[in-house]
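Design job #97: recover the sequence.
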């Protein structure tokens, strides 16, 4: 079947460097493709070429005659339109119902009466998204459609796209969004595209297999890492895999948080506070705040302890940022009180991001120009080594900030944030502009952070991976806390997150469960495996580390090819066994939890 859109051997050069070097993209009727790759790899450039907004330096572009293509612009031009509704309706075909514009704008948090000249960047993006969706084109090209959307709007958008018959090419850093919508994955790496006939859920393991094969070939040919990005690329595959230890720690923290929520207000807990006051970070009691007659926060009580990772969730404009400011002392409550723990050192990342001096080097930006050493978790580290943790090469460390992409700037700000001495992190939308590898890194750093984190995010996958509890805006100024991540919160509520202006419905009475004569139990073999697998996995990681050190010897293959082959085979076998053990441990742990809940 002839594709609706086909890009072949696409070449794009900037400043003598090839951004795209033979990239391809083929889209058929009804296809659901996600286009993934690191920030700066050329994804948006390829999408603009597909939309006809940019010409390639080489290659061919075919669009089936008569096929309608719509593209979501990152920076929409709305000049000449009196209102946002006019702007969206202008994108409709003559035979289409203009009320669709009103429907789309309403679901994206706009009335249609807004003046385009006074819109914020986020509002303009939402209007542009409504215009792209309005005519139901043959091909829909969406570049970061979830930016500036809250959780409710993201989930609505998923449903809207699923019901749309348009073929889709999607760029997004929202894992859950990609997993729910894609059927094919196109990976853009080093200027070339690789196609996987599966959705994003199968991408990361497939990508890691490709990179591991490349790394083995690189050793065989006795090549050292020459390209600047190789360190980042090959180092990231190991970091991505969330190890069993991190999962177990998060599960333990969630259990602790669940117990804290149950005990809040208990006399026994109040009495224990004197001896362990250093563990208390924030104590909020009966907090209320209003703007005029509108209640933003009503009778909010919460206690946050050291090590908690608390996430504030809810629709845009419902009061999450106000509650955040109340909890950290930037805003005084009109009723109730907030007490902050002693010795609190706060490091904060807001939605607007801290300013970076464009002519300052990356190293100087992180150290504030005070030498080549940063203090991280109380220990000195050389800034070059530290920046590698945030996927910057030593060569990049001396380059000016102004040459960085938006995603790289976001990554640098995170490096600067975590180099600031602190025991309390406040992160407002920390995942904005981060690619998937950097999201993995952020999750890892937060998991290993010895202090407390308070964050606001609409990224459901991120919340599931880092949060020990969710504080949800229920409507009318009411906030409720649920132990666990986003998925745990939905399970406990038994209903979706309320829209802005909605209040939570009274819960329905649960039907009585039939009595059990005996509680279900895990069989002996599985219970034994659940207990022993973590130790087995840890031992495998130690053995793999030793093998990797031996294989790093660039002259080993030349001196003793047989030994090199033997060690490589051992490493591959250990890696495969460890991955299998991790998968089994996760499956058993989920089974154990399910049995305990019955």
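Job complete. Output follows.
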């Amino acid at each position: 079947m002839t594709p609706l859109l086909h890009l072949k051997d696409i070449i794009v050069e900037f400043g003598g460097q090839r951004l795209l070097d033979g990239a391809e993209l083929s889209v058929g009727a009804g296809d659901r493709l996600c286009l993934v790759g690191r920030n700066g790899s050329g994804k948006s450039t390829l999408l603009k070429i597909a939309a006809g907004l940019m010409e390639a330096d080489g290659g061919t572009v075919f669009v089936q005659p008569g096929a309608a293509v719509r593209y979501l612009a990152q920076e929409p031009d709305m000049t000449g339109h009196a209102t946002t509704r006019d702007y969206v309706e202008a994108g409709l075909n003559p035979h289409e119902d203009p009320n669709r514009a009103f429907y789309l704008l309403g679901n994206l948090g706009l009335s249609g009466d807004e003046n385009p000249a006074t819109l914020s960047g986020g509002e303009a993006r939402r209007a542009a998204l409504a215009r792209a969706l309005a005519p139901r084109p043959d091909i829909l090209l969406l570049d970061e459609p979830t930016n500036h959307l809250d959780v409710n709007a993201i989930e609505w958008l998923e449903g809207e796209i699923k019901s749309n018959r348009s073929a889709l090419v999607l760029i997004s850093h929202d894992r859950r969004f990609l997993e729910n919508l894609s059927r094919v994955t196109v990976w853009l790496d080093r200027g070339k595209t690789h196609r996987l006939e599966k959705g994003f859920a199968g991408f990361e393991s497939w990508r890691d297999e490709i990179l591991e094969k490349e790394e083995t070939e690189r050793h065989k040919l006795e090549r050292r890492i020459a390209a600047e990005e190789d360190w980042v690329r090959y180092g990231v595959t190991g970091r991505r895999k969330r190890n069993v230890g991190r999962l177990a720690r998060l599960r333990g923290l969630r259990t602790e948080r669940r117990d804290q929520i149950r005990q809040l207000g208990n006399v026994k807990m109040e009495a224990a506070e004197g001896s362990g006051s250093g563990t208390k970070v924030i104590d909020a009691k009966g907090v209320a705040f209003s703007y005029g007659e509108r209640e933003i926060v009503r009778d909010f009580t919460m206690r946050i302890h050291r090590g908690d990772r608390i996430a504030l969730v809810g629709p845009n404009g419902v009061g999450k940022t106000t509650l955040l400011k109340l909890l950290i002392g930037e805003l005084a409550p009109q009723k109730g009180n907030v007490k902050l723990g002693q010795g609190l050192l706060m490091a904060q990342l807001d939605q607007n991001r801290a300013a970076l001096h464009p002519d300052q080097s990356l190293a100087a930006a992180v150290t504030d120009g005070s030498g080549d050493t940063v203090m991280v978790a109380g220990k000195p580290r050389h800034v070059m080594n530290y920046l590698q943790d945030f996927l910057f090469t030593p060569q990049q460390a001396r380059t000016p900030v102004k040459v960085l992409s938006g995603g790289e700037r976001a990554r640098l700000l995170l490096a600067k944030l975590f180099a600031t001495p602190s025991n309390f992190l406040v992160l407002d939308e920390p995942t904005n502009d981060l690619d998937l590898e950097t999201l993995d890194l952020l999750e890892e750093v937060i998991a290993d952070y010895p202090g407390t984190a308070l964050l606001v995010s609409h990224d459901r996958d991120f919340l599931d991976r880092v949060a020990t509890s969710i504080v949800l805006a229920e409507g009318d100024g009411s906030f409720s806390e649920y132990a666990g991540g986003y998925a745990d919160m939905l399970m406990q509520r038994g209903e979706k997150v309320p829209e802005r202006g909605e209040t939570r419905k009274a819960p329905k009475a649960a039907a009585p469960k039939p009595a059990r004569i005996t509680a279900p139990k895990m069989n002996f073999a599985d219970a034994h495996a659940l207990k022993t697998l973590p130790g087995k996995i840890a031992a495998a990681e130690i053995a793999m580390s030793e093998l990797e050190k031996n294989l790093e010897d660039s002259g080993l293959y030349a001196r003793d090819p047989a030994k090199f082959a033997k060690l490589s085979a051992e490493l591959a076998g250990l890696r495969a066994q460890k991955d299998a053990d991790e998968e089994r441990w996760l499956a058993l742990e989920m089974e154990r939890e399910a049995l305990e809940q019955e």
